[in-house]
Amino acid sequence: MALVLLKPPFSSLFSLNYSELAKIGNRVLVVDLDEQANASLSLGVNKADELDKATTLKEFVQILDSLKERKELINFLKEYDQPGFKPNEYIQPSALNKILSLHNQANGKIDVLPSSYQTTDSSILSLGLYCNKKLDNALRKTGLSKEYDYVIIDTSPSLTAVSQNGLLAAQYIIIPSQMEYFSVYAIRRPIKNAEEIHDDTNGKRGNILGIIPMMVENVNLHTTIKSLVSKVFKDIPLLPEIKRATAVGQASHERKPLSLFAEQNKAASSVATQFSNLTKQIVKQIDHLERNSSK
């Protein structure tokens, strides 16, 4: 099992990569730590289909209000240590599983521990002492960390009580970034936070796997910034890049794994290959680190 933190928020793009992990037979749990809940929506939970059909503000608000009745991330963190706690009641299967099951002989799947507008700093801080370690404790004490091959934690880019839960739970950290000056400037803080956690935990947490250049175009600016990133963060590898492609948004909107979407849309085949190569590289790095840590 690998706990991987995805930071900052490219959920609607990167959720396509979760399906690549599942497609090769992995059991994947996505923990959504972002109050905007992009990962939950793009993976087909949070009543995503109903929200797509909403035509008025009143309908939209009614759908959001109905989420109060279900168990989600904040309830999971509040209740995990209570007698008779059943973690699977808080987890929802991704809508992608039905599609994957038709094309996948390896029994991979994606489940989601969803969030919503209820996942706020104040709700986390109300959990009391050591609230920033609640996610780490909950995943391990409930046994969920052993039920999945990969636990992907999606967070917002800023350091908050919510995102700090993800940082303190994650063994490995992936940092996607557009090759724009402000985007690259913004990743300095999560890198510094990860390095501090890595030192404080003797390397058990905060291992940065690399920076993913996202939405890359063949322009001088992106080439220049990629070179700058390599020089400034010379100890952090650049992972395989993902080029800008309208097919990515289309696949995400239809909530289809990109590789399957590419079967009907030839324009998507190139970026589908990029996501596949990226997944293989991430899995390879994690496997290497896991083998070395077990020696």
Task: Tell me what the structure shows.
With 295 residues, this protein is α/β, with parallel strands linked by helices. It has one domain (2-293): 3-Layer(aba) Sandwich (Rossmann fold), CATH 3.40.50.300. Helix content is 50%, strand content 13%. It has 16 helices and seven strands. It has helices spanning 11-23, 38-42, 48-53, 57-66, 73-79, 96-103, 121-125, 134-141, 144-147, 161-169, 181-186, 188-200, 220-232, 246-253, 258-264, 269-293; strands at residues 2-6, 27-32, 92-93, 109-113, 150-154, 172-178, 207-214. It has a seven-stranded mixed beta sheet, with helices on both faces. The longest helix is centred in the C-terminal third of the chain and has 25 residues, at 269-293. The chain is globular and about 55 Å long. The model is unreliable at 5-16 (pLDDT under 50).
Question: Secondary-structure map with pairings?
Answer:
Blueprint: E1 2-6, H1 11-23, E2 27-32, H2 38-42, H3 48-53, H4 57-66, H5 73-79, E3 92-93, H6 96-103, E4 109-113, H7 121-125, H8 134-141, H9 144-147, E5 150-154, H10 161-169, E6 172-178, H11 181-186, H12 188-200, E7 207-214, H13 220-232, H14 246-253, H15 258-264, H16 269-293
Parallel strand pairs: 1-5, 1-6, 2-4, 2-5, 6-7
Antiparallel strand pairs: 3-4
Helix pairs in contact: 1-14, 1-16, 8-10, 15-16
